Every structure is written in structure tokens, then in C-alpha cells.
Amino acid sequence: MPEDQVDTAREQDIQAVSRTAQILGLFGPETPELSVAETTRRLGLNRTTVHRYFSSMVSSGLLERVEDSALVRPGRSILQLGSFVLGQQRIIQMAPAYLRELALDIKVSIVLSLWGASGPVVSLVEEADHPTLVTVRVGSQLALNSSQAKVFLAFLPDQFHADRLTGSLPEPQRTEIRRRVETIRQAGMSSDVNHRGICVLAAPVFAAAGICATIAAVGTERMLPASLDSREAVALKAACKRLTKEMGGTWPGTTGEE
After folding, report:
1. How many whole angstroms separate alpha carbon 77 and alpha carbon 127?
2. What would the pLDDT profile of 177-195 be if each residue is shown by its tens digit?
3. CATH 3.30.450.40, applies to 80-246
4. Of 149, 103, 239, whose CA–CA distance to 111 is shortest?
5. Is the pLDDT of residue 254 over 50?
6. CATH fold for the domain made of 3-74
7. Is CB count within 10 Å lower at the N or C end of the chain?
């Protein structure tokens, strides 16, 4: 394709994204629904253009049509995104007390990760007061074979997305991770010891929309037993269940009353 056509296509894409954002930006507490006429008036676009954008955004799930009317409102995709963002904000506010309690109790570093574009991202770290310190840098992108990634993969609401991610891995790593994910789904948490003797116990935290974070205990094998029946693992799982309850989520296999 000639360079001038490429530039034109790129400009059109940018304009489409900009207009989509403008339409979504019109919604708010005072404007829960929109009509073509109102959108046309407020954005200065013609009716045909607004009709076209409405149709495209409805097809993609960004908008949905209001029953028995010509109005539209934010669609399921937007509501899911909003719920996800609010959940991340809430857990970042609520989790530090749980991390401090765990670090004091089991004397190892405690790490909370949120799901990023293609895997967990370390978002909070509480370091233990211990002569031997094993820690992780905030902002680190964790690999798909990490304990916290496997916990996310086990409980992501969109398991097709999880399968696509693991499907990009080479064999035999892909088969091994999928086997471990199924084990984690049954046990409710993960335990891994790497070649350097670092043990990681990881468990999920759920909000109303599903898994919203993972919390991991990180230490050497001498500091942190790898057994899922250990005192440390039980303490981690209990903390994640309490935080899940506070987040309005439900731990798998429970009624949400634990």
C-alpha cells in the first residue's frame, strides 16, 4: 500500500477511536442514556455518522440498545471494564493491611499482583523484617509460568483467553502449565520452588466480577515450606478469603459466608 494511503488509514483509525471516546464520554450520572439527536447536537456530528458509530459500538458490546426505544446506554464491555477498574482501585486501598499482617505472621515478603495486558504485574510488596530477604520489584511483569500467573490462569472468568495465552507457549511447557493450572483450580492455591531454592505460595482474591488479584508469599525453602498444608499456606489462604469477603467476592466452593 502506498505511504500516503497508509497515513490516511492511520488517521481514519485515530479519528474513529477519538469519536468513540467522545461518545462514551457523554455518559454520566445525568446522562445514563443517549439518543442520536442528543449525540449529534452535543458533538456536532451529522446523524448518519452517529447512526454508524452507534451500530458499530452496539455490535462490539461498547453500547447496547434500550428496550422499546431508540436510545443507547453503556454496554456489557464497558460495565465489565468499569467493574474491573473499580475492583483494582479498591483492592489497592484495602490490601496493604492484609499484606502487613501476613508479613509479620509468616516472616517472608508478601506480594500482591494485578492482571495486566498479558499476565500479572506486581503492584504491592510488603517486605518482612528478616535477615534473609527475598523480594520482588513493584511493576515487575511476571512470566506465565510464575505461581501468581498460574493462579490467575486457573480462575480467569474468560478461560478462552487463558487458553490462548498458554497456547502461545512451546511444548512441553504448555502442557505442564495447563496441568498445573488444573491442580491449582482444585487446591485453590499454588506452590512452586524454583532452581534457586526460592519458594512461592500464591492464592487468589476474588471480587464480585471474579478474580481481581493474587497474593504470594516469597522466601527461601528454609524460610517458607512448600506444602499447601503448612501453617504459612493456611495463613495465606485465610487472608485471601477474608479479603475476598471484604471485596464482595466469593471463594470457589463456598457460599461467600466464610
Report:
1. 37
2. 999 999 999 999 999 998 8
3. yes
4. 103
5. yes
6. Arc Repressor Mutant, subunit A (1.10.10)
7. N
The Cβ-side half-sphere exposure at 71, using a 13 Å CA radius, reads 12
- Under a CB-based contact definition with an 8 Å cutoff, are residues 127 and 103 in contact? yes
Lowest-confidence pick of 83-87, 103-107, 120-124, 154-158: 83-87
* C-alpha to C-alpha distance for 234 and 217, rounded to whole angstroms: 11
Asked if residue 248 lies in contact with residue 193, where contact means CB atoms within 8 angstroms, the answer is: no
Torsion over CA: 76, 82, 84, 90 (sign): negative
Q: How many Å is the Cα radius of gyration of the chain?
A: 23
pTM for this model (two decimals)? 0.68
DSSP type of residue 254: S
Give the residue from 37, 33, 32 showing the smallest Cα distance to 51. 37
Domain residue spans in the chain?
3-74, 80-246
Give CA separation, 111 vs 63, 183, 250, in Å. Answer: 37, 22, 21
Q: Are 171 and 157 in contact (CB under 8 A)?
A: no
State the pLDDT confidence band at 2, using cuts at 50, 70 and 90.
low
| Residue 33 DSSP one-character state | S
Q: Where are the alpha helices (DSSP H) in the chain?
A: 3-25, 36-43, 47-59, 76-106, 147-155, 159-167, 173-187, 231-246
CA distance 159 to 232: 29
Instruction: Return all residues near 64 (Cβ < 8 A) that are at least 6 apart.
Output: 58, 72, 73, 74, 75, 76
**Number of residues that this document lists for the chain:** 258
In whole angstroms, give the CA distance from residue 224 to residue 202.
12
